[in-house]
Amino acid sequence: MRFLHTMLRVGNLQRSIDFYTQVLGMQLLRTSENPEYKYSLAFLGYGRNPEHAELELTYNWGVESYELGTAYGHIALGVPDAYAACEKIKAAGGNVTREAGPVKGGSTVIAFVTDPDGYKIELIQTKSTTYDNRRQSDAKSTDPLHSA
Description:
22% of the residues are buried. The chain has 3 helices and 8 strands. 21% of the residues lie in helices and 35% in strands. It is an alpha/beta fold. A 4-stranded mixed sheet has the order 1-4-3-2, with helices on one face. Strands 5-8-7-6 form a 4-stranded mixed sheet. It has helices at residues 13-23, 82-91, 129-138, and strands at residues 5-9, 27-34, 39-45, 54-60, 75-79, 95-102, 109-114, 120-125. The longest helix is centred in the N-terminal third of the chain and has 11 residues, at 13-23.
């Protein structure tokens, strides 16, 4: 088995695409429209399946917001420097809701940002050689988290 994607329902597809591409540096991989059932999809990520998991944004036409509920937690992204990533995200107009710092009771450096629909995204500072090498080869110069 393989993890393929996570789906989030969004109230404004273009606003969410802009956030994930311009603020978090993902690539828009593909979109589709389904007029019969009145929904649109956008798939984003730092690479394509099967090498990378993707984020599926679903816009149900006419629905502008959703109750997030208490069961949803967050999406996690690995970054080489959580402090620098927060600065870049803020400079790009993103909302940092927990500044970078050690997790309570541990030493792993984390931060949280919130997307335009209120979904939480955890940034986890990752210093592994494998991660850094793969990240450098995959990242485009427009990725605000690459040099973070």
